[in-house]
Amino acid sequence: MSSGRGLMANSSQFTLEGKPFRILGGSIHYFRVPKAHWEDRLLKMKACGLNTLTTYVPWNLHEPERGMFNFQDQLDLKAYISLAAKLGLWVILRPGPYICAEWDLGGLPSWLLQDKHMQLRTTYPGFVSAVNAYFDKLIPLIKHLMFQGGGPIIAVQVENEYGSYAKDDKYMAFIKNCLLSRGITELLLTSDNWEGLKCGGVEEALKTVNLQRLSFGAIQYLSDMQPQRPLMVMEYWSGWFDVWGENHHIFQADDMLAVVSEILERGVSINLYMFHGGSSFGFMNGAMDFGTYKSQVNSYDYDAPLSEAGDYTPKYHVLRTLFSQYHSEPLPDVPSLQKRSAYHPVDVQQYLCLWDTLRFADKQLKSEKPINMENLPVNNNNGQSYGYTLYETTITSGGTLHSMNNIRDRALVFVDRQPVGSLNYKTQELTIPDGKRERTLTLLVENCGRVNYGKALDNQRKGLVGDVTLNNAPLRDFTIYCLDMRPSFMKRLSSAPWKSVPHKPSFPGFFQATLHVEESPRDTFLNMSDWGKGVVLINGQNLGRHWFIGPQHYLYVPGPWLRRGENQIIVFEEHKSEEKLVFAENPDHGKTIDVYKLPFCTLL
């Protein structure tokens, strides 16, 4: 990349290196794509006619425990940005600290919530000190990759969509200063939907807008706010995300093309969000809550121009034709697709009931009152971030069990380890059968994903966040187990007394199978449509959740996560198992709904 004048926004169009420049961008998140596939996805982006890569940076992955940082392997941000430069792409970096992204807590680490007074995304001292410590580590890592250092980063975003939150009028200035004081000299941007433009900006940073349709006059509104400055749609939503229990969202290629064409005809720069969505592996999916909590699925296919597995879609081809008109040279050839395999079904051969695994949890904890996940004294006192927490106590009678709306987000309820029902936001009351002796009451509570957008962000502690009552008396004297499915726990399970799968296994339980791969491993999909609800791990890598209510029934299995020879598959299953695990080359998204036909307010 050249040195000289970087991206400038002091006239009606951008200039780069002193020449007029149109940003034709696309979002691909390195943390949602297996590292071995980064180059494939970026080459496909380049061949579509895009010149700029945008990516968020997820704080919660890079600092999973306070003061413990990880920028290696899958999280090697420097390698990702350097690869983009090598392939001839510019980069717009969106470092947060909050990123939204349909990602757990919008990318903020859950250990922030240990402070009961915490005020996220404000100048609250506890948040300020945590952000400063994070940026002290992050910014020096990527500073030499800025344009002024000869790198590809031409702009940096200040936070993300703050106008939709706007709790502290000093906050955006604080984040801007975090960047400037650490030596960031490239163009600064802010990004908001049209309603957030009023209060999401910060002095001397260029405002950009996020949208999917033009009917609200957002671009004209942006132009009126910033006369004689370049216009940019930072997030042009090429599709939409999915939530459990609803249909798969689609956005027709023709509808998308009409809007993108008009944006370009107006001389506006654009970034496609997403160009390639990938997968929110593990427990990283977020949730939405605008009065009703809805957990998001692991697939981040987004109906984007490149599918979850990197396939070309009709959108890709129409965009390539459109973007080619904005280049003086022919576009690179389209890379050939990587082959996938529908591996032969494998037998589920081994089984462990949940109760036999509790001794392999980090440690059992005793507490008179319930403790929420984040405040459990585990993981070097950083609390539990994700997965399940099991709370067990003794009861002496039956009656009415009431959650008091203190279960986050869903609990399976057992008496003497036999299932009696479940509790969630809608079902907060359950009848416990009578009994004349002391019995064990167990609540297996699942964190289904923290909200990633909106005011509900402030109330995202998980597990039991308060009292649960039996006949109006709060339960007391708990034994608590952390079941976060971390690699250390899964490794300990390998030495557990696994058994052959019984004719009628009890649930919840762990089911194990072995996939034999003869040749070089290829990507595949695991079809979980006949199972109930739970989590799938392959060779210790958490693929994500499955749930019979859909819409996602197929879990993406990256070939680089498989190995030649034996591959261990473990399914944690709450309700219903099958004798075999079945693979497919392609997913079936099931019933779909067109986002362009939905009222805009239902999407946000």
Can you tell me about this structure?
The protein has 604 residues and is an alpha+beta fold. It starts with 14 loop residues before the first strand and ends in a 10-residue tail after the last strand. 15% of the residues lie in helices and 28% in strands.
Question: What attributes does this structure have?
Answer:
single chain; 604 residues; alpha+beta; TIM Barrel; Jelly Rolls; 3 domains; 9-stranded antiparallel sheet; 8-stranded parallel beta barrel; 9 helices; 35 strands; 28% strand
> Which geometry do the CA atoms define?
globular
Number of H/I helices: 9
Helix content: 10-25%
Number of domains: 3
How much strand content do the residues show? 25-35%
Determine Rg (CA atoms, Å): 25 Å
Task: Please write out the topology.
Blueprint: E1 15-16, E2 19-20, E3 24-28, H1 38-47, E4 52-56, H2 59-62, H3 77-86, E5 90-94, H4 125-142, E6 153-157, H5 171-180, E7 187-193, E8 206-211, H6 218-225, E9 232-237, E10 248-250, H7 253-265, E11 269-276, E12 287-289, E13 293-295, H8 314-324, E14 346-353, E15 365-367, E16 388-395, E17 399-402, E18 407-408, E19 410-415, E20 418-424, E21 429-432, E22 439-446, E23 463-464, E24 469-470, E25 473-474, E26 478-483, H9 487-493, E27 499-500, E28 509-517, E29 524-527, E30 533-538, E31 541-547, E32 554-557, E33 565-573, E34 580-584, E35 592-594
Parallel strand pairs: 3-4, 3-11, 4-5, 5-6, 6-7, 7-8, 8-9, 9-11, 10-35
Antiparallel strand pairs: 1-2, 12-13, 14-27, 14-28, 14-34, 15-26, 16-22, 16-26, 17-21, 17-24, 18-23, 19-20, 19-22, 24-25, 28-33, 29-32, 29-34, 30-31, 30-33
